[in-house]
Amino acid sequence: MELTGRLTADAKVSEVKGGKKVVNFSIAINDSYKPKDGERVELTTYVECAYWLNAKVGEYLKKGLLVQLYGRMGSRAWVNKDGDAKSSLTCNIANLKFWAVRLTAPAQNRVQIKAIQQVKMTTCHFKGDNIIFI
């Protein structure tokens, strides 16, 4: 599955059993349509996401950043403290790209990207521990 949207908040890195780290974040996907006999309708879909491959990604995933994600949907079910059954869908990300005019990382890894033209965007891929700019 491929999704493109903007982060709704800064990503959060959590540690789970066994010391494995996961980067959790949510994106908003904006869309619109116009019914035959009506005015344009704007809608936003929110998608919860989890990225398990590199916790360093969390440093770069900031609110408002436009990202393109590739992954699969996963479901989770649990019973809350009141005994009610709950469930949620999460997109488990296998690959992600940043679409940014300017990207700023923590001071020790500061990276700034400036687009030459508005139309030409810069992408950033994460592969293992390396960041690849295209």
Any idea what the shape is?
Answer: globular
- Strand tally: 8
Output the helix-strand order: EEEEEEEE
Largest sheet: number of strands, sense, barrel closure: 5 strands, mixed, barrel
Widest sheet, order of strands: 1-3-4-6-5
Radius of gyration equals 17 Å
What share of the residues lie within helices? Answer: under 10%
Point out poorly predicted stretches: 107-123
Mean pLDDT: 78
* Total of helices: 0
User: Could you tell me how far the N terminus lies from the C terminus, measured between alpha carbons in angstroms?
Assistant: 22 Å
The proportion of residues in beta strands is over 45%
Strand pairing plus helix content: what structural class? Answer: mainly beta
Give descriptors for this structure.
134 residues, mainly beta, five-stranded mixed beta barrel
Task: Describe the structure in your own words.
The chain is mostly beta strands and 134 residues long. The protein has no helices and 8 strands. It has a 5-stranded mixed beta barrel with strand order 1-3-4-6-5. It is globular. The two termini are 22 Å apart. About 13% of the residues have low confidence.
Condensed summary:
This protein is mostly beta strands and 134 residues long. Helices cover 0% and strands 55% of the residues. The protein starts with a strand and ends with a strand.
How is the secondary structure organized here?
Elements: E1 2-7, E2 12-15, E3 21-33, E4 41-51, E5 66-79, E6 85-100, E7 122-127, E8 130-133
Parallel strand pairs: 4-6
Antiparallel strand pairs: 1-3, 1-5, 2-3, 3-4, 5-6, 6-7, 7-8
